[in-house]
Design a protein that fits this description.
205 residues; alpha/beta; eight-stranded mixed β-sheet; 10 strands; 24% strand
Length: 205
Amino acid sequence: MAWSMPAAAAPDARADFKGEAASTAARTIADWVVGSRDHAGLPFIIIDKSAAKVFVFDAQAASLGAAPALLGVGIGDDSVPGIGERKLSTIKPAERTTPAGRFQASLGEDFDQDILWVDYDTALSLHRVIAGKPSDRRTARLTSTTPLDNRISFGCINVPAAFYDSVVAPAFKGTVGIVYILPETKPLDAVFAMRPRPAPSAPTP
């Protein structure tokens, strides 16, 4: 399904986080997505890198669930040109970023498992947490109480297997959706085409 231009804006609409704790940045983007209809009536995901947290919403912007995530070890909001074509062994730690931006995503497969392709050209995906090296302690990092130890991947987003199976995969089954990855070094409006909400109309005398 190809993305189409958003329908008329609904400036008073709000995303429903259903009580899930979320940062101001995540709520700002979620409400902008809904108010501008930037998601074009599709399911969408917001990835808050600073909080190392993933939020999944249905097409009506109601939360389907949230979970901690592992992210690229490199701090930054851009992908290195051509990184999707390089061998992992050649990618330096500083280049292992999870890029910020708006992506049209769909379910697919890599060599080992089914995944959500976020950006195929840069080999960026969201998938179940992998075992990795024992020293990576990926599962322990996911369950820790701080996001400070969640930077370990080459750039892909790792989430708990149960969350992927019960929330992510069903939300994107049979459809594309939109993934919004929040920046950590740039302002929100430098990454997303945000517009300020119009001021409320004056009451009619």
